[in-house]
Structure prediction request, 1261 residues.
Amino acid sequence: MRITVTVDGTTYTDDVEPRQLLVHHLRETIGKTGTVVGCDTSNCGSCTVHLDGQSVKSCSVLAVQADGAEITTVEGLARDGALHPVQQAFHDNHALQCGFCTPGMIMQSIDLLADNPDPDEQAVRHGLEGNLCRCTGYQNIVRAVQDAADRLKPGSTQAQPVGSES
Amino acid sequence: MTATVEPEVGKARLRKEDARLITGRTRWTDNLTVPGLLHLAFLRSPVAHARITAIDVEAARRKPGVIAVFTGRDLAEAQGSLPCAWPVTADQKAPPAPSLAVDQVNFAGEAVAVVVARGKAQAHDALEAIDVDYEDLPVVLDLAAAVADGADLVHPDLGTNKSAHWVFDSAEAGTGSDVEQAIAEAEVLVERTYRQQRLIPAFMEPRSVLVDPTGEQTTVWSATQIPHILRLMLALTTGTPEHKLRVIAPDVGGGFGGKLQVTPEEVVALVVATRLGKPVKWTESRSESLLSAHHGRDQLQKLTLAARRDGTVTGLKVELLADMGAYLRLVTPGVPILGAFMFNAIYKFPAYRFECTNVFTTKTPTDAYRGAGRPEATCAIERLMDELAAELGRDPIELREQNWIKHDEFPFTTVCGLEYDTGNYEAATAKAKEMFGYDQLRAEQRERRERGDTVQLGIGTSTFTEMCGLAPSRVLGSLSYGAGGWEHAAVRMLPSGKVEVVTGSSAHGQGHETAWSQIVADQLGVPFEDIEVLHGDTQSSPRGLDTYGSRSLTVGAMAVLKAGEKVIRKARRIAAHMMECAEDDLEFTAGKFTVKGTERATAITDVALAVFAAHDLPDGVEPSLDSEATFDPDNFSFPHGTHLCAVDVDTETGFVKIRKYVCVDDVGVVVNPIIVEGQVHGGLAQGLAQALYEEAVHDESGTLTTGTLADYLIPSAVDLPHFDTDRTETPATSNQLGVKGVGEAGTIASTPAVVNAVVDAVRHFGVNDIQMPCTPMRVWTAINGGPTDAGGLGTEAGGGLGSIDTSGGAA
Amino acid sequence: MIPAAFDYTAPSTVDDAVRALADAGEEAKVIAGGQSLIPVLRMRLAAPSTLIDIGRIPELRGIRDEGDALVIGATTTHYEIQRDPLVRSHALLLKAATDTVADPQVRHRGTFGGAIAHADPAGDLLAPVLALDAELVLHGLEGRRTVAAADFFVDYFTTALRQDELLVAVRVPKHTGWGAHYEKFNRVAQAWSIVAVAAAVRIADGVIAEARVGLTNMSAVPVRATAVEAALVGQPATPEAIKAAAAHAADGTSPTADGNADTAYREHLARVLTSRAITAATGV
Prediction:
């Protein structure tokens, strides 16, 4: 089947097998390997992307179901060389170690902040319940999301990172 | 020089590694491709124990896109036997370990055939066309039954399921007295049998391997913790000349010991690529990973603790059955033996005996998982100390203090003969108690217990130590480990003043690039940003023993430091020549050689440029500052800490909620506090998960019923608490950095803290143990006078893909 | 893992979908959000010959007010239900249960009708649908019919849907002003319910005038705790009265046993959780 998807601002038209998963289409056909596959039961959330503005697990969407859709991956977040505030907050709060879950965590964090711009700790934890991390124990991820929420508030000054860049 | 440069070591540096990882510019093995790449898919045995009477692959060979199909018989010669590097006893029994089963399968999930196809989906499609006839053999699942007389045998040729019997006895070793006498004379005996359930490392990045045999060297990219060990072992196993192999561990997404392995799939990928002369790749699915990547833990621990009425411990006897699974993998037999030196923990036991029987079962092989042997030991002794406290009506912390090594007694030689160099258990415990609000929580516990609150508060303690920095080669040799424990590094001064650091450590999330840069920046006085750390490629970092056992900082970074010292030594001679003074007249600080008592100075980066030009070097001096070094410490390091956990146990449902978790760890000198804190957080998460959530369960036919992430319960952000972490700092004396290692501390310490808290919450119902994981049903059943191990073996996993089904309408 | 190959069609009308279903025969499967089905396909636990994607049929999506009932289109997502003001006002129990389904990503894609038709006894939306006396609108070659929830769930993963029929909408009678709560019990947040209880109550003049209680995962199909409902009616919403009524929660159920819960424990949980669900629903 021929499908057309717009990924990180570029439109791609390809022939795909109906069984092709969106995540494999992104990784193998389009070359967006920043989005990864961590499981086969949609538990881990590593493959999270935005499909028409909402977070989805791209391992549980068929590429044909995404025909005509607009998709944003972790590779499409930075603007003019500047990191998205959530990306920056993940760095500043040491919210990643091996980094495999990170693309999915970041994409889901952005989604959760769109729904709830000022989440408390429990709201962040619930918003990330579909994303597994094996390295961080989540604490710094939660802190990063709350930090990003502060940065995204209109008129906010950038929060102080816990670590230093220099 | 007047400006004081803030030292890098100790600074909360944000990680260099992050830039790629947060933007998706990653190099996971599965991201890589080469022209003409073929894909592998493995057919795995659905049964735990059977003879293979026939395999028909003809139909699979004819499927679209299929290039070849191989069975174990096809590869028998080339694949060799998977290596085990740790024969713990001279008479250890081990079966051949083929990568693809040849005549017999010994666990469900064992690979029996491999399809090579042009597409990944095509390879999987062809698996369904392979026909295997299995003739069932009796399964061997229960550890105790496996060692009983007349037991069914996993490997009949061995004549037994016992692989090895390993004993340490303090009376025989001359490091302590006789434990049987201590038991005979004991005023109090605590006798328990604990189960260390089987766990699955479950790193987030599934394993993947890509082999390209088309170059002069065959290149193997693998999601591995151990590129250097893998290169050697692939060479030895398959007969490929070592110098014709290059192994690269690109970005690797976690390991936790789970990628400390030479896997059947790596061997098969190499053999198949070599045979076909074509590049091949295999990436596992999560269910394949849970089923066939090695598991961890799985021990039955019979424990006898002897004490006096006044609370003084007098002896400890440990009798273990350790489940090897069906085969001995890379370090399988040594894992429980690592625990032998840790059951005595921080306590002054005068008498100690440890014996361990390594047992074969028809299950997935076990091997290293975060802590490897030490969590099992720590959990047992910390549970026992709480039980002794309960038996004597004593406060569990006070009882521990009575028995632990006091800070002024270091260095202290333990009943196992290990010398603990430094520690201060009093300081860590005092800090933890204060942060925790220990006395207030105890008061609240009393009040709620008297009130008969539905939700009961429990408080658990774990005052742990661990031996880490797995290294001293002589010690490893005395334990029959097949390799040394040194680490290698090189420091290269580039002409422009930039620095390349080559390390044999192989990072997979730890932040070595950042931490090593901090150390070298201080040492050479060059900016943090000017340092590049090279690792994980046997071509650029040719020597190394890789990353596991909390050894990278204590051994690997020490090698870096040693290499840096050599660079400075070489540069000093040239600087003296450049400034026409004696070497002894120079002092080196903040990157500059200064003639003592003068303003005359030359930066080491200027020396590097002068060396590059080589126009005017002292006679006999080679034009290079580059240096390498290998470090092999004399002793392990011994981080310690005090962990306190408060849980709310809903006595109506058995549900456990962690209310507060405080830990104060002493990991020696800290290079980067945010990395250390992150390691502690992650370690705690895995330790807590063992206490409450995770267990690899097999049914009575030997099928893994927790074979997906819907059934094997890795906790999410909702399920884990906020951790309050802090540190005390007693520098190690076994290395000049004073560091102790932190990778495993949180995992080792936290499991018993949680279980102790759960048992403490319900002890007044007559409960003195609950088997891990402390599931709601187990807790509720124990409260209500039932067994402590409700659920578990022989029952189906609940929820999960039990709830995904093959029929039904729209979804 | 990668699913086995299948044919795919995405009709734009219900009639076309039903025709496609009939044409494709037994081996066809309907996909909506795919949040339960795609993992099954990836694990190759199922290998349908054809997938009929009803995700591009506009008439199946959305929530309508039809006077005494809400009509919820089958492909309305969980996310839409969570945020719908009509659902909040008239079927609060449904919102409460939907809030607990899986995780945010799955709720974005997963559909109400899909979850109902999947008929997983551990799924969280079946008990509320049953408790609220919802009716399921099925469309086949022969036209439309309406089936009561009590008659729709037949067995594990088995419903009254015929081969050529599609679940097109769910008609939920309004329970305006009712208190509601969904009490879910699982070991980790992401896991399926070990047991869960859906409770809705209407309080009038200080007593419980009406009560609806549905149980998740206490039988092969969702069940109504009718004995509990009967015992509650006319009682004051006191802890004692609720506890006494909840003691009947496991009556007539036949729960499964697995590693997380044996039968006795599930029955016990049903009683405890029922008491808690009703207590929360009454706002005591």
Chain C touches chain A at residues 1-8, 10, 31, 34-35, 38-39, 41-43, 51, 53, 55, 79, 102-106, 108-109, 189-190 (CB under 8 Å). The CA atoms of residues 79 and 105 of chain C lie 9 Å apart. The mean pLDDT of chain C is 97.
